[in-house]
Amino acid sequence: RLCKRRAFMDPSRYHAPTVEAGAQGSATQHTDGIGSEEDRMGTWPCKPRVLVTNDDGIHAPGLLQLVEALVQTNAVQVFVCAPEREASASSHGVCTAVKMRVAPTVVPGTRKAVKVWGRPADTVMLALTSPLFDEDETVMRNGQAETVSRSGFDLVVSGINRGDNCGLHVVYSGTVAGAREAACKESGPAIALSLDSYSRVASYGDAASAALPLLLAAANSDKSVWKSTECVLNVNIPNCPFELMKGYMLTFQGRHCYKATWSAMEVEETDDETGERVMYVVNTSGALRGDSTVYSDSWAVQQGWVSLTPLALHSCYTRILTATNEAASVRRPPASAVESDVKAGSSWKMGSSNAAKALEASLQVAVCARNLQVLS
To answer: Which pLDDT tens digit goes with each residue over 146-156?
Structure first.
């Protein structure tokens, strides 16, 4: 049994399959889209490693277009570990003491892709705490080939989700949970991405274009800040062409949420084990309880802004974002430690440099909130 476990966790078993290229001795081509072995050899320093997950399933268009956008930058290495099928609204549920099926699959452009018969938090936990994605990478340093052992990730991103995750949707969201699990494991930058559209044929290309500068900035940011603040960045993107997006706005978590509508099916039957009469009910989304509070996440998205809401593992940094900044203890930290010059409503136009500024502002809020909580 021990031998089987070790073999199962051997990362080499989960490389995507290869197919031989045409005749005349051409190099082996990989179906994962990376190309030849020569193409796989990088240079020092190594590119950041990005893990992608979601709750819509590993072959959902939001994930595929996000991966495609990341791969096309040629600036990061992309890995995928995601549910085999849709796991929406699974929140932060995990499977314990039960077998989970894990299998390699092909997601074009990735170095490695694995599908898991589990929930989003399961997939991230597996990727971060097992050797499944550990690998030796051959790089060129000072003109010499060198083997470097690599593990962990420089960024964990969950999405792009079908449907917003504004307001109280954060509580139910498997997408946010995927990013939150990375923060739980102190992995570093953790970002959840959602598109404000429930259409199964929505175009995620514009959403990926809006998110890309944020992701690249995060992948190259200081991981220690993310770890110390336990920050999860919840990003909601308006469903409109990229050219019509106003930019990035720092927001706070509102109370936007759909109410439940229960439908009872007429079918009744007797339970074979208990003998009780049972029926089946279906929970479908009912009326939307919107939140038009200025600078809330849902308000910003409706106004055409890409909403950036820094979340903690415990709560939203609302006290910082709304400038109340009241500590519960008389041992109040210095004002400079808990007061931020960015507030909810701070905004930046689209673009790589502005995306980096928006990301830095979100982390500044997280740092101020951490300082406030330490002495409160």
So the answer is: 888 899 999 99
